[in-house]
Amino acid sequence: MMGNNREFICLSYDLIGNGYFQKLTFVVLIYFSCFAINQVGASIHEYQNQSFFRRSNSFFFHGGSEGLYASKLHVDPDKKPSPEENHLNGKSFIRFESITFRRPKESAEKKNEMQQKTGLVEAIIVEVKDREKIGGSYLHSAAICCTPDLSKEGSCNVGEVIIHQDPNYPYNPQRIQTFFEGKTEETTMVLQTVEINHTGMYYLYFMFCDPELMGTTISGRTVWRNPEGYLPGKMAPLMTYFGLMSLAYLGLGLVWFLWSVQYWKDIIQLQYHITAVIGLGMCEMALWYFEYANFNATGNRPMGITLWAVTFTAVKKTVSRLLLLVVSMGYGVVRPTLGGVIFKVLLLGLTYFVFSEALGLVENLGNIDDLTGKARLFLVLPVSLLDACFIIWIFSALSQTLEKLQIRRSMAKFALYRKFTNSLAISVLLSIAWVGYELYFNAADPLSELWQRAWIIPAFWNLLAFVLLVVICSLWAPSNNPTRYAYSEETGDELEEEGISLTSSSVLLAGEAANKQLERKERRASNADLFRLGEEVEEDKRE
Question: Which of 170, 257, 347, 486 has its CA 20 to 30 A from that of 362?
Answer without folding.
Answer: 347
